[in-house]
Amino acid sequence: MSTAGFDELIHAPTRLEIVSLLAAAEWADFKYIRDELGLSDSALSKQLSTLESAGYVEIHRRFVGKRPRTSASLSTAGRRAFEQHVAALQQILARSRQDAGAASATEAGRGVVRR
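^ thats the sequence. predicted structure below, dont judge the formating
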């Protein structure tokens, strides 16, 4: 697992969904991403452009017959950033569980019961 590193760019909900979807695939068609996440063409295009500018996503544009076909892939840097972001989120969750456990033990000693 990579070292933890919270990434503000990836953390935005739509970009987090896109990156997590791309993390599970080598390449994904624009239409598949759009339909899977329920986004408009313009919303997906904007988010992919943002991720591409950061070096997190590679975009491949080609024609199939006379129709344009766009697909996206997570770059090596994007995959690393996503793994580090997930690790940071896992650390946050682990810390909250530890804090909750410590609080429960302290409260139990004082006779406090939580529902």
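The first strand starts at residue 28 and ends at 29.
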